[in-house]
């Protein structure tokens, strides 16, 4: 099985991951994505996944191991689905608090910290924003493709569609991940 850079010791820029834990709801998003966990993840990992409680906290390595196995067995689309499921599992009405895509993208770090805790656990940052694009940086340890799904679904929750493209990738040797987000249609809610 391939191993995430983080599981093998390499970390994103500024990430120390001191006591980094993730919410059980995030881990259970994998179960919502995989229809035959014993086949896809293996019996041991599937059994561990079935013991996860949504209201408990778990070491980030549990989530990273699941994402790596999912990537190896099913690929990018299923990783994106995990991101979609994470956002769909957040409290209803959460995204109605944002008045624009800009405000939501600037709130990505706050969203991240709703389901992740610890010290020096990485961050999300809007690096640039204009009328026709945004650039986001992330130094979290989560799989990049899953994070694309999180960005897409967060915007969809606001009934905004955007194209998300990764231009720098920690998994490919860059110090952090960078995403370019381009709205699919002109919309005053973009917030330039």
Q: What is the end-to-end distance?
A: 43 Å
Average pLDDT taken over every residue:
92
**DSSP summary: helix tally:** 8
What structural class is derived from the secondary structure elements? alpha+beta
Query: How do the strands line up in the largest sheet?
Result: 4-5-7-6
Number of strands: 7
- Beta fraction of the residues? 15-25%
Largest sheet: 4 strands, antiparallel
Low-confidence stretches: none
Shape summary: globular
**Approximately how much helix is present in the residues?**
40-55%
Encode the helix/strand succession as letters.
Answer: EHHHEHHHHEEEHEE
> What Rg is obtained from the alpha carbons, in whole angstroms?
16 Å
Give a brief description:
The chain is 40% helix and 21% strand. It is α+β, with helices and mostly antiparallel strands and 192 residues long. Helix 1 crosses helix 5 (76-88).
